[in-house]
Specification:
426 residues; alpha/beta; 6-stranded parallel β-sheet; 4-stranded antiparallel β-sheet
C-alpha cells in the first residue's frame, strides 16, 4: 500500500520461497515485475546465481543485466576443493560425513582463530529408522516419507507434517529388537564435532534449534561476535548472512539435492553450493571450501566448485531447450489431492482424458501424466498430477482455460489446483 513507490528490490531472486504453492499459486518475484511495469518503476532482481528464467530474460533484452564481477570487499572468491566421498573411507565408517580431510582443515582453522561453517541439508540425528530383520522402514502415516530420529527426545518425526512418535523398542511389524538408526542429520554432526573438538564452541542452526523465541537471532549474533567457533546447519546458513570471520566452509554432502525427480534439481544444487561457498572469504584473506560429494564428476558440482555460472547456464539450458522445459518452454501443473486414493486416481485419469480430447492438433502441447506425484502422499492427502508443456505459453493456457470453462476441474472431497509456471514438481 505505498502511495509513492519508487523501487522494488527482490534479493536472492532465484530463491524458490518466493513461490506460493498452496491455495492461490503465485510468484512474488514475477508480481514485483508486473507491479513495476504497471507503476513505471524500477525493479531490481539481485542474485549471485540467477534463475535460468531471469538470465534468459536478460539475454533477450527483456530486462537489463548489470554485472558485479567483484566482491564488495574486493577479496577473491574462495578456493574450493572437491572431495570424493566414495574413496575417502569405507562405507561402514560413514557416521557423520566428518572425513579426515575435513577434520584436519577444521583443526587448522581453529588454530588460526578462524570460524567454521558446516552445511548439511538434513536435520535430525538419524534420517532413517529400519528393522534389520524384516526390512520395515518407520514411515509417517500421513506422508510418503520416512521418519527422522531425534536423539534428544528419542522420538521419530516427520519433517513434512510434524507427526511424531516415540522410537519403539521393537519393530512394529515383526517385534524384532534389531532396529537400526542410520543416515546423518545435523544433530549427529554436532555431537560428533563435540567429541572431536571438545574445547571448541559449537552450535547448530536449523529449524529444530531455533524453535524458541529469539533463538535464531541469538545464534546469529553470537556467531557474528565470534563467540561460536563452529556452526553447523541446514539451508538457514545459506540465507544471505554476512559473517566476515568464516575462514572455512565444509559442505558435508554436496549432492543430497542433486538426484530429485525434477528438471531443476541441478540448478538448485548449483545455486545452493555457490551460495554456501560464498559465506567464506568475506574479509581480505581468501577463504577455503571443502566440498564433499558422492558424485564429483557431475557438471553442477564441478561448475559450482569453479563458481562458473556461465558454463553451468550454457550446459543446463541446452538440455532444457532440447526438452522444451523453462525457460524455453512453459508449464502448467494440475494437482489433484484428496483423502481417498482411488477417487483421486480416477479423477486424475478423467482429467487426463479430457486434456487429450480438448487439445487442438495445431497447438503442440505435451500432456505428461496423469501420474502419482513424486511425493504420493502429504499430510494425509493422496496426490496425482498432470503437466501441460509447450514452447508457446498461449497453447498451454488455452487448454487449461477449456478445462475450467467446462467445469472439469471440480470434484467433491478433493482439491484440484492449477499452478501456472510451477517452481516445484515434487
Amino acid at each position: 500500500p505505498f502511495k509513492n513507490l519508487g523501487v522494488i528490490v527482490i534479493d536472492e531472486e532465484h530463491d524458490s520461497s518466493y513461490k506460493q504453492d498452496d491455495s492461490f499459486p503465485y510468484n512474488a518475484r514475477d508480481l514485483a515485475l508486473v507491479r513495476g511495469k504497471l507503476e513505471n518503476l524500477c525493479v531490481i532482481l539481485g542474485s549471485a546465481t540467477p534463475s535460468l528464467e531471469t538470465y534468459v530474460n536478460a539475454a533477450r533484452g527483456k530486462i537489463v543485466k548489470l554485472d558485479m564481477p567483484f566482491r564488495p570487499h574486493g577479496g577473491p572468491l574462495p578456493q574450493t576443493e572437491v572431495l570424493d566421498l566414495k574413496t575417502v573411507f569405507p562405507i561402514k565408517k560413514r557416521k557423520s560425513f566428518l572425513t579426515p580431510n575435513l577434520i584436519e582443515a577444521i583443526s587448522r582453522t581453529l588454530e588460526d582463530k578462524g570460524q567454521v561453517a558446516l552445511f548439511l541439508n538434513r536435520r535430525g540425528f538419524d534420517t532413517l529408522a529400519q528393522c534389520s530383520s524384516c526390512g520395515t522402514v518407520m514411515r509417517c502415516p500421513n506422508c510418503d516419507i520416512s521418519l527422522t530420529h531425534h536423539k534428544k527426545n528419542h522420538d521419530l518425526r516427520c519433517h513434512m507434517c510434524g507427526f511424531s512418535r516415540m522410537a519403539p523398542p521393537t519393530c512394529p511389524s515383526c517385534s524384532s529388537e534389531k532396529l537400526v538408526f542410520s543416515g546423518v542429520g545435523t544433530q549427529k554432526v554436532e555431537e560428533s564435532l563435540a567429541g572431536i573438538f571438545p574445547d571448541a564452541k559449537i552450535e547448530r542452526l536449523d529449524r529444530d534449534s531455533t524453535q524458541k523465541r529469539d533463538s535464531l537471532n541469538d545464534i546469529l549474533r553470537r556467531f557474528q561476535n565470534k563467540e561460536i567457533d563452529i556452526l553447523t546447519g541446514t539451508q538457514m546458513i545459506v540465507k544471505g548472512h554476512d559473517f566476515p570471520g568464516i575462514s572455512l566452509v565444509g559442505i558435508l554432502c554436496g549432492d543430497s539435492s542433486l538426484h530429485f525427480p525434477d528438471f531443476r534439481a541441478s540448478e538448485r544444487t548449483f545455486q545452493t553450493l555457490v551460495q554456501v561457498s560464498g559465506r567464506t572469504g568475506r574479509e581480505s584473506e581468501a577463504g577455503k571450501v571443502l566440498l564433499q560429494t558422492f558424485d564429483p564428476d557431475h557438471y553442477a558440482i564441478q561448475m559450482a566448485a569453479r563458481h562458473d555460472y556461465c558454463a553451468f547456464f550454457e550446459l543446463d539450458s541446452s538440455m532444457r531447450r532440447e526438452l522444451s522445459y523453462p525457460p524455453y518452454g512453459h508449464l502448467i501443473l494440475i494437482k489433484i489431492e484428496g483423502s481417498n486414493s482411488k477417487k483421486v486416481e480416477q479423477k486424475a485419469i478423467s482429467i487426463g482424458a479430457h486434456c487429450r480430447r480438448l487439445k487442438i492438433s495445431e497447438e503442440p502441447v505435451s500432456i505428461l501424466g496423469p501420474a502419482p506425484a513424486p511425493r504420493k502422499k502429504v499430510i494425509g492427502k493422496h496426490r496425482w498430477q498432470i503437466v501441460l508443456k509447450s514452447q508457446n505459453r498461449t497453447f498451454v493456457r488455452n487448454l487449461a482455460r477449456k478445462l475450467l470453462s467446462e467445469d472439469l476441474l471440480k470434484a467433491g472431497g478433493m482439491t484440484i489446483s492449477i499452478d501456472v509456471d510451477p517452481v516445484n514438481l515434487v
